[in-house]
Amino acid sequence: MPQLALEGDRFTYGDYRRWPDDERWELIDGRAYDMCPAPTRNHQQMVLEIAAQAHAFLRGGPCEVNVAPFDVRLPKTDEADDRVDTVVQPDIAVICDPQKLDDAGCRGAPDWVVEVLSPRTAAKDQREKRDAYERAGVREYWLVHPTDRTLMIYRLTEGAYGRPEVQPLVGETAVSAIAGLGIAWPSATTEVDGPVGP
User: Fold this and answer.
1) What is the pLDDT of residue 195?
2) Distance between CA 148 and CA 53 in Å, rounded?
């Protein structure tokens, strides 16, 4: 099991599918990351606010909004599912190509991913997951910093993210390139417990 794994151990989606349903894990380049304990209530409230606005805006169109837990398999080439070594659960994933969706979740890069940082996952979200999303071709990646009240937006240009656009969360509307969707931040943004950062 992953909790007994050594640093060098590597897993695939084939392994992942055999693990207990009551445990949450992510795989990035074969390395297992424990997703427990569950996020804080404030973290989930912010995810809900963003997802609700995105869903209302995109409803009736080709794009589908999904919230964690929702498996996104990111194959490196055309390997079979059981050989895929990167499986993540973004806080919010927007997929505009229905061919990528199946009963297991999504295979391939979502168009837009949002991660709300929490102290336990911030380093992974800002490094390993960012690199995995960039490599897979996620068109837009948002990192929401609740305690710093900032948003970092990475947009894929010529296969790379480059420097992020940084915006304040309070009193601003952040616009996604996905269908011109704008997210209006509430005047009093909720915060997660404790500092976040790499």
Assistant:
1) 40
2) 22
* Per-residue pLDDT reduced to its tens digit, 4-58: 555 568 899 999 999 888 888 999 999 999 887 778 888 888 999 999 999 999 9
Q: Is the dihedral of CA 30, 32, 38, 41 positive or negative?
A: negative
Strand partners, 72: 88, 106
Domains with residue ranges and CATH for the chain? 39-184 (3.90.1570.10)
Residue of 12, 122, 82, 70 whose CA lies nearest to 2: 12
Using DSSP, state whether 134 is helix, strand or coil.
Answer: helix
pTM (predicted TM-score): 0.89
Read off the amino acid at residue 36: C
- Quote the tokens at residue 134: 């960039």
CA distance 66 to 35: 18
Q: Which two tokens stand for residue 123?
A: 């380093």
Share of the chain above pLDDT 90, in %: 62
